Amino acid sequence: MRYELYYWPGIQGRGEFVRLALEEADADYVDIAQEPERKGGGVAALMRLLDGRRVATPPFAPPFLKAGRSIIGQTANILLYLGARHGLTPKSEAGCLWAHQLQLTIADLVQEVHDTHHPISGNLYFKEQRTAAVRRAGDFRKTRLPKYLGHFERVLAVNPAGRGYLVGARLTYPDLSLFQVVAGLRYAFPNAMTRLEKRHPRVVAVHDKVAARPRIARYLGSARRQPFCDEDIFRRYPALDAKG
Ligand SMILES: N[C@@H](CCC(=O)N[C@@H](CS)C(=O)NCC(=O)O)C(=O)O
């Protein structure tokens, strides 16, 4: 089956968490909105499913995935589906729930990263909420980010399989997402991350291990991997990453 990924063109965004799973699975997929020339491609195709009246299970927001006749929304939900189909999740029900729980926690962290530059509203420009953003980002760097990274470090330390993965003894989809979070945080908060990485070696090791996987390395070196940029979730605004 050829999957269709629907996500805003020109940024990694939350679509990247899905792309990484599709790439690791070596799945056949089309990144629909990235291909405006393709018949049935481009943003118009995305909008048709997002706003159209013909979808019985409409997604609230991108990313969403078309798999045969199913349209699946919510990043963690898409990964739950792909993980089970492509061997990126444990076999047991308890293991699946644990992987999903970790992914939902990553989704919470991603939202908090977004809220550092848009603390009041996603409908206002950064410059219209700059003062609140500076305050929110300060708290994020000092309390929230260490709490999240500390949680994942602890999960890695207490995993009884002890092989350096979040769940069990092999790679699962939350590892791919943790890679993306570390890469994004390094882009957005280089000062904070220089300090925090020393205290979270296991989290950094997951990043490195994922980056070295052959299919992920191939993807990261390809044109399909878009660069980080300041229109995205992870933004490098120096005012939000004060030194010290
Ligand atoms: N919880 C959803 C959030 C989806 C989301 O916020 N998507 C953004 C792009 S990354 C969007 O287009 N939001 C539009 C909106 O919230 O109105 C997920 O994890 O997929």
Structural summary, described in words:
The termini are far apart. A four-stranded mixed beta sheet has the order 2-1-3-4, with helices on one face. It has nine helices and four strands. α4 packs antiparallel against α5 (130-158) and α6 (173-188) crosses α8 (201-211). By secondary structure, the protein is α+β, with helices and mostly antiparallel strands. The mean pLDDT is 97. Glutathione binds next to loops.
Outline the fold blueprint.
Layout: E1 3-6, H1 15-24, E2 29-31, H2 42-51, E3 64-67, E4 70-73, H3 75-85, H4 93-117, H5 130-158, H6 173-188, H7 190-197, H8 201-211, H9 214-220
Parallel strand pairs: 1-2
Antiparallel strand pairs: 1-3, 3-4
Helix pairs in contact: 1-3, 1-6, 3-4, 4-5, 4-6, 6-7, 6-8
Bound molecules: glutathione.
Glutathione binds near residues 14, 63, 75 and 107.
pLDDT < 50 stretches: none
| Spatial gap, N to C terminus | 50 Å
The small-molecule ligands in this entry are: glutathione
Physical arrangement of strands within the biggest beta sheet: 2-1-3-4
Class from secondary-structure proportions? alpha+beta
What is the molecular shape?
Answer: globular
The count of DSSP E runs of length 2 or more, i.e. the number of strands, is: 4
Q: What is the H/E string? A: EHEHEEHHHHHHH
